[in-house]
Write a structure and sequence with these properties.
The chain contains four helices and no strands. By secondary structure, the chain is mostly helical. The N and C termini lie far apart (25 Å). The protein is globular, with a radius of gyration of 12 Å.
Length: 65
């Protein structure tokens, strides 16, 4: 996930913090729209095991009621 964050930050001219939030929210959206069988693949491809519970709550992602 860190490589993607750095690339987004450089290419889009945004902070790494903002890029991180964008990656997390995009991954969450993909997991929301795709069948549940794809959740793990999204996590692995984007390195989402690095996402903290605090970030999940702060961003109000789909999995948190």
């Amino acid at each position: 996930m860190e490589e993607l964050i750095k690339r987004m930050s450089e290419k889009l001219g945004i902070s790494e913090e903002t890029a991180r939030k964008a990656v997390i929210m995009t991954a969450d959206y993909l997991k929301y729209k795709l069948p549940d069988t794809f959740d793990r693949q999204v996590d692995v491809i984007l390195g989402l095991p690095e996402v903290t519970e605090e970030e999940i709550k702060e961003l109000g992602l789909f999995q948190i009621p």
